[in-house]
């Protein structure tokens, strides 16, 4: 893993020094005397206040965790090489699962209301950093503000005596090759996006481009805006393209797959109807269009298979109540709240299980630190439940002493 560039502040992006991640975590745990008063002042003023923003921009040094920069300065066009780390900012939530083996370090953010999380990665590039951030946050089930991802993102160096460093983090190999993957992909509204009719003009039957509506069958929202299908989500079939269209080099495979998905989802469509629909997709979504000869060859090849199988190529975890008028931002906010609720519940269950099965002969007296180690949960996460656990731990420890 490489060294990390340090700058004096958000408003002064001249590189002042370099440091290892371990050295950075040590500083965050035990910073020099001028640093702590600034952090405490910012936290006392509160995030969003004028004073907080002023301290954040002018008085707090910053680490550049994703990439090293050249020319002694940090901006978009000075990126030189990846550090081997990926930074994820979890804002306004302290109840997150920080037990992943891929996490190299974490600490409380400047505001004290969230976490700065550093993940060991391989394959981060200038071309894929947006998709990579989304990919890794999904992998670790972390809430993410996609609007806050930038190539020259800086991280204010905070103060947290419980900051964590793992020199043996398991490196995650990033799958995304470009920022277009999983970032500007159209999930369902293929008909609407490319101006194609929702109904076949001949049969007056709806042309299906997704089976997501099948997931809603039998779901009772009980007045709630969202229904959680569980950690793995449920699979469904979908025809979707990059919002910029299908480019040369990918067109033949994409068209063949589209034809088979279309046929599998719409078994009522005769060949001439499929061809008419595919011609429309070719004109509007393929850049450049497939020639007539190329398209006919793909169609004939596809129709040699009499009963194409439906490919369940997407998954969905959250279903949103159609009775609610929810914007994309509303849905994202609801999903994050639901994920946080589930995380808290899972964490509480782990702690409860550890306490119920505590082996005094093996583990000795119950402490918060021991609970954290056995449950595989971070010490700060357990400490936040200290008040709730105090009486339970006291009672169990006294019971153990009484049986000696």
Overall shape: it is: globular
Count of all domains: 3
Number of helices: 14
Q: What percent of the residues sit in helical stretches (DSSP H or I)?
A: 25-40%
Number of DSSP strand runs: 17
Rg for CA atoms: 26 Å
The secondary-structure class comes to alpha+beta
The proportion of residues in beta strands is: 15-25%
Task: Indicate the mean pLDDT.
Answer: 85
What is the makeup of the main sheet?
Answer: 5 strands, mixed
Could you characterize what this model shows?
The chain is an alpha+beta fold and 404 residues long. It has three domains: 4-173, no CATH class; 190-316, no CATH class; 328-402, no CATH class. Helices cover 38% and strands 16% of the residues. The protein contains 14 helices and 17 strands. The protein has helices spanning 21-29, 35-45, 50-58, 129-139, 190-193, 212-215, 251-265, 271-285, 292-303, 328-356, 360-363, 368-375, 379-383, 386-402, and strands at 4-9, 12-19, 62-64, 67-69, 79-82, 85-90, 103-108, 115-122, 155-156, 164-165, 172-173, 226-228, 234-236, 246-247, 286-287, 314-316, 318-320. The strands form six sheets. Strands 6, 7, 8, 10 and 11 form a five-stranded mixed beta sheet that branches. A four-stranded antiparallel beta sheet has the order 2-1-3-9. A two-stranded antiparallel ribbon has the order 4-5. α2 runs antiparallel to α3 (50-58) and α10 crosses α12 (368-375). The radius of gyration is 26 Å and the shape is globular. Residues 181-198 have low confidence and may be disordered.
């Amino acid at each position: 893993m490489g060294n990390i560039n340090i700058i004096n502040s958000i408003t002064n992006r001249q590189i002042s020094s370099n440091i290892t991640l371990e050295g950075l975590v040590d500083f965050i745990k035990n910073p020099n005397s001028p640093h702590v008063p600034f952090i405490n002042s910012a936290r006392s003023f509160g995030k969003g206040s004028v004073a907080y923003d002023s301290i954040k921009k002018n008085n707090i040094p910053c680490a550049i965790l994703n990439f090293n920069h050249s020319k002694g300065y940090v901006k978009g066009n000075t990126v030189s090489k990846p550090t081997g780390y990926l930074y994820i900012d979890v804002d306004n939530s302290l109840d997150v699962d920080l037990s992943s083996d891929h996490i190299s370090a974490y600490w409380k953010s400047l505001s004290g209301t969230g976490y700065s999380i550093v993940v060991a990665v391989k394959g981060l590039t200038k071309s894929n950093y947006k998709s990579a951030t989304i990919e890794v946050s999904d992998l670790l089930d972390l809430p993410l503000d996609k609007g806050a991802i930038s190539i020259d993102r800086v991280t204010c160096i905070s103060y947290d005596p419980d900051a964590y460093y793992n020199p043996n983090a398991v490196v995650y190999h990033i799958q995304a090759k470009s920022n277009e993957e999983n970032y500007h992909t159209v999930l369902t509204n293929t008909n609407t996006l490319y101006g194609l009719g929702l109904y076949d003009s001949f049969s007056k039957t709806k042309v299906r481009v997704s089976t997501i509506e099948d997931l809603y069958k039998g779901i009772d929202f009980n007045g709630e805006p969202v229904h959680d299908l569980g950690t793995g989500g449920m699979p469904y079939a979908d025809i979707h393209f990059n919002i910029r269209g299908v480019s040369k080099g990918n067109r033949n495979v994409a068209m063949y797959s589209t034809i088979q998905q279309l046929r599998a989802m719409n078994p009522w469509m005769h060949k001439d109807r499929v061809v008419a629909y595919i011609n429309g997709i070719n004109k509007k979504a393929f850049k450049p269009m497939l020639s007539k000869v190329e398209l006919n060859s793909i169609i004939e090849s596809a129709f040699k298979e009499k009963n194409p199988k439906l490919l369940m190529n997407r998954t969905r975890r959250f279903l949103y109540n159609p009775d609610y008028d929810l914007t994309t931002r509303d849905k994202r906010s609801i999903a994050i709240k639901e994920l946080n609720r589930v995380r808290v519940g899972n964490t509480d269950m782990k702690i409860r299980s550890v306490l119920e099965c505590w082996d005094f002969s093996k583990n000795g007296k119950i402490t918060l630190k021991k609970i954290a180690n056995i449950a595989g949960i971070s010490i700060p996460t357990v400490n936040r439940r200290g008040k709730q656990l105090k009486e339970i731990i006291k009672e169990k420890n006294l019971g153990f002493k009484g049986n000696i």
